[in-house]
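Final report, closing paragraph on structural work. Over the funding period we assembled a curated collection of sequence-structure pairs, and we close with a single example.
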Amino acid sequence: MIRALCFAVLLCALPGLRAEQAAGIESSDASAAGKGIAPAPLQTQSAGGRGQLTSVEENDVFTPIGQDQHYTQGAKILYLSPSLDPNSCWARPFDWLHSIFLFGRPEFPDNRIEWTVLGQSLFTPKDLKRSDPSTRDRPYAGWLYTGVNFIQDDDSRELTSFELLGGVVGSYALGRQTQNDFHVFEGSSKAKGWGHQLRNEPALVASWERKWRLIHEFGNHFGVEFIPDAGISVGNVFDYAEAGGLFRWGRGLKANWGPDFIRPGYSGTSYFSPERGGTDFGFNLYTGFQGRAIARNIFLDGNTFANSRSVSKVPVVGDAFVGAQLYYKDWVRLGFSLLVRSPEFYHQQGVDLFGSFNFGFTVF
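Its predicted structure, as stored:
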């Protein structure tokens, strides 16, 4: 029902967005023609002016060792809007974000809205067979959420995003049902300790991030680049500051800004503009890292307003990853990454390893 309602709202809202966008373009071109001036290139218009639907699936079974512990599964469905006309009502939040110095005001911005239609993350201890899990292991927890991300690309040189996510932590997040139903489907044992999961609590987080592109281009749209990033997240789910970087080699690099992972992790976006890549078929190989200084993580510290299971978190956590992406026009995008995460709490034994799939395609 939740997904059906989300898509109904999406279908109702987007025709108006595209109509405003088309009207703005036609008005601009008509004005230029009346003055005997050739219309300016569509600096903020994506190919076809169409939106993109993206799914991200992260799981610790997508690895050679097949762990089923700690951050065990994450998934989200995203809708990325076409480029927004600067005079559209949809662009007003970007003016407000500029007024409070979170966003710049570039000459030719490519402003997009990314809607997290639905997301869910699951966390468990290492031993799933115990009905009363060890208090020295991380607690069971689920997070169900939705949200919106305002994204601004400045001529492929800089990307700024401001994301608001809201949902629920606890049994209402349906973590027990998701994990155990999947275990039944694949013929494995159910996790027995979900009765000790975090209690129900509204879950909110706001995140700001900026990326910079340092690129050296070769012939035929090939290139190599480094993308450093910095950001901050605040809320009763996460409080942390981040810094990281991404190295990429490939063709059509400017079409996007790298992979999109699920928080807390190397944070990306589903931003995609194939005409900026300059080629119908693009691909890249990458490796990257991110470090986070963490003041709060509800999935380790426990509930904000009630007593719950918790563990002593490590205040600095790092991720490293490798992967590959490819796309064809604006029709389809596909990527896979393998990530390793340093210990998140003091009694954790070893690092965590998980894989991440990204799949995107044009919808309208």
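The chain has one domain: 2-34+52-362. Residues 1-48 have pLDDT under 50 and may be disordered. We thank the funder for supporting this effort.
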